Amino acid sequence: MKILNLYAGIGGNRKLWGDEHEITAVEINSTIAKIYQDFFPDDKVIVGDAHKYLLEHYKEFDFIWSSRPCPTHSRIRQFSAVARGQNEAVYPDMKLYEEIIFLMHNFQGKWVVENVISYYEPLIKPQELASHYFWANFNLGNKKIETRGHNATMDVRQQLKGFDLSSYKNIDKQKILRNCVEPETGLHIFNMAYKTKQIQLSEVF
User: Fold this and answer.
1) Of 47, 93, 114, 144, which is least surrounded by CB within 10 A?
2) Beta strands at 110-116 and 132-136: parallel, antiparallel or unpaired
3) What is the mean pLDDT of each run of 10 residues along the chain (205 residues)?
């Protein structure tokens, strides 16, 4: 498959996908994009605006994954930081829903949009897996996947996520790893999308 991995970070969701597919990753932070490229040298990595790239290139792919940044939707930020006056209240970033609606009505392949469980009732009903929301045009199943290592030490978190960041300097390693989609979650969803695609192909041929 040709896969588009948007807001790729260092590739937590992609880590267990293997190398038999053609993967394009889009990440706006050049430092993070470089780390992604180090871990996945065969992927095409683009430093740029993932939201814009989706609109311009969606027709080129079979499977699209989007993990748009989540702080403005986060329960932790709203009920802890904002409620205590540590952060200003902000508008939720509605580009999340722009992408969901756009993919629902325009993309012919399989797609998934991931975000945190929001502090408000979702405007479009998601599926819930591994303590996150997922909007997708295929069933993610009901497999129980535990989130791991959010409060662990750096060494333990690196081991659990499967990324060794010890050689990288001047980056917030805790935040980078905390923002990683669990590799097992990424693999499960990838397999469900791929399984569905295989079923469709077998029906055609």
Assistant:
1) 144
2) antiparallel
3) 97 96 97 98 98 98 95 79 68 95 98 94 94 95 71 83 94 91 94 70 39
CB count, 10 Å around CB of 145?
16
**Paired tokens of 98:** 């722009």
Q: Residue 203: count other Cβ atoms within 10 Å of its Cβ.
A: 7
Alpha-carbon distance 107 to 113, whole Å?
A: 13
Instruction: Give the DSSP letter of residue 180.
Output: S
Global pTM?
A: 0.89
DSSP 88-149: ------THHHHHHHHHHHH--SEEEEEEEPBSS--SS--EEETTEEEEESS-----------
DSSP strand E in the chain: where? Answer: 2-6, 22-27, 44-47, 63-66, 110-116, 127-129, 132-136
Contact status, residue 147 vs residue 114, Cβ threshold 8 Å: no
